[in-house]
Amino acid sequence: MCGIAGIWHRKDRVTETDTADIRSMIQEIAHRGPDGQGFWSNERLAFGHCRLAILDPSDRGLQPATTPDESGALVYNGEVYNFRELRAELQRVGINFISESDTEVVLWALHHWGVEEALQRFTGMFAFAYFDKRKEALWLCRDRLGIKALSFASVGDRYMFASEDKALLRVSGFETHIDTRSLTLALAFQSVDSYLSSFRNVRRLPPGACWRIDNDGVHEGSFWHALDALDPLRLGERRPDTERAKTELEARLRASVGMHCLSDTELATACSGGVDSGMITALTREFVNPFHAYVIDPDTGVSEAEDAQRTCSGLSVPLKRVALDRAQYLRLLATSIYHVENGNLSNATPALLALTRRCKADGIKVLLTGEGSDELFGGYPWHAKSARRASILSLIAALGPTRSARKRRLDRLIDSAFVNAMGGMTPSVAMKFASSLSAAYNFRQHDIMEALEFLKPISRRVYAGNGIFDLCGHMQGIIHRHDRVSMASSVELRVPFLENGIIDFALNLPPALKYRKRQGKWLLKQVASRYLPAQNILAKKKGFPVTNDYFEGTETLLNGGVLRELMGWSIGETGRFVAMCGANPYLRARLVGHEVFARIYGSGETAEDVGEKLVGAAGR
């Protein structure tokens, strides 16, 4: 895991200004790679890299990496877990390697097979820039689900990219400011696409992106999309073999965790006591021993520490509790917003920063977590709720007096099929609102429902669609935030549930194996019953147990704040928002988060200063 940056000239040559900018960009994201920095340039291209050494920590794993004749060059952030198999294939065609790192394998895979073919072979999480002098082209690519991020901007004939938006802000001559359209979306919804930047003129490559840059400009493409992975025969199976599915899921999970345990440094797991992180912890024990699990133990709300202790005691895995009080949380909130580059955090984000800081202090560089399971295996309560609602509404639609009336009712049902955490809006309403701000903002709901048209009845279609919708939307925000705050602590966060084979398996798992006996994640829980306490498996989903009481009083920062100026609110409007916060703690958290963001990136206050102001406001 690392931080990367680069500048490409369409016409002019690389100058001293460019090389200075690259160094400034890398310095801005040095927290992503404290183990060393490297730079490389040719006539038109400059690369920079900061390294978090995990696989082959020797100097042989340094980046930027080049072929001996420098016809290929790479800066790369992430891990390709099947690199040993790929290495063996490349050795059979005569390619020699000098390191034990996956970076060198990624370079030669791209150089030998070509970018498009190599991407199909990679299993892992990555964002990279690869230059092929033979074609005078630069490729910018992200993994299938966008676990690793990559931001992009241009000024004049220069194209720039970096692992984080804030690095681009350091480029000389690049003018940007907070994008109030993006800010409006973030204020309106609890979740927005993570590839919408908060800054004007900054773009984030979408998941699965494969962009080619050459003399003719930027050619935007992609190499994978969830809808293309759907198999109607498997997903539409009405009587699936439960035992076979359990066996396959367990085998795939074990293989994925084994791959994710590849490391030349110490690793740990985050264990909340739930099914997802519990399974990751249980299977990690088969590959790494000893290791520790970590859990946040806040001083208010319902702590997950006892559930985590129950899991870890049964597995004989030592558990470290990370204490967190209100003042610590609010200070970490400001720091998290600085790193995430958006005020739309979940309550868990500052807590993850606390946990990864503890990991770093303990010498841990790799942390395995359970993200992705809810989206893939139907764990969110609104998945089943939406399916039940669709079943009822489809009966009502069938009562229409004419065929056209029945079709209109069914179309309205499809428009409101996905009811997740969109600020209380159905996506049909949210899409109309978002489209008025940006025509490019796409909620994907129609594409998903069309791709699932073969699923009958419509309740199955809606249930499967909600999972895909959240995989492509809701989860993007989660993994974006988690990448930012874990790397702020120089800790690589790995997500075994988001391995290629598990993604394919889960996307094509019949709904009957995801939801049964009024339980989401039914199949996963059947597998987990072999490893985890029944009490933990059957427990109601909690979410992160920090109450919104932590934010009480912080809304006073809105009075005379920076957010009001950015949004053009009057004093009276701001006062009404502040008054509303008392009755709506979710609104309070959202508004305060964006006020913090506006102060840091709009008026230049430091995260440390804003954190102290939050603590002061909360103590009044």
UniProtKB/TrEMBL annotation:
Pathway(s): Amino-acid biosynthesis; L-asparagine biosynthesis; L-asparagine from L-aspartate (L-Gln route): step 1/1
InterPro entries membership: Asn_synth_AEB, Asn_synthase, ASN_synthetase/amidase, AsnB_N, GATase_2_dom, Ntn_hydrolases_N, Rossmann-like_a/b/a_fold
Example GO BP: asparagine biosynthetic process
Active site location: C2
Residues binding L-glutamine: D102
Residues annotated to bind ATP: I296
CDD domains per UniProt: Asn_synthase_B_C (cd01991), AsnB (cd00712)
SUPFAM superfamilies, per database record: Adenine nucleotide alpha hydrolases-like, N-terminal nucleophile aminohydrolases (Ntn hydrolases)
UniProt GO MF annotations: asparagine synthase (glutamine-hydrolyzing) activity; ATP binding
Membrane-spanning parts: none
Enzyme class: ligase
EC number: 6.3.5.4
Ribosomal protein is among the record's keywords: no
Pfam families, per database record: Asn_synthase, GATase_6
Catalytic activity from the UniProt record: L-aspartate + L-glutamine + ATP + H2O = L-asparagine + L-glutamate + AMP + diphosphate + H(+)
Sites marked Important for beta-aspartyl-AMP intermediate formation: E371
Keyword match Ligase: yes
Domain (Glutamine amidotransferase type-2) ranges: 2-216
Keywords: Amino-acid biosynthesis, Asparagine biosynthesis, ATP-binding, Glutamine amidotransferase, Ligase, Nucleotide-binding
Family membership: Belongs to the asparagine synthetase family.
Listed name of the protein: asparagine synthase (glutamine-hydrolyzing)
Organism field: Hoeflea prorocentri
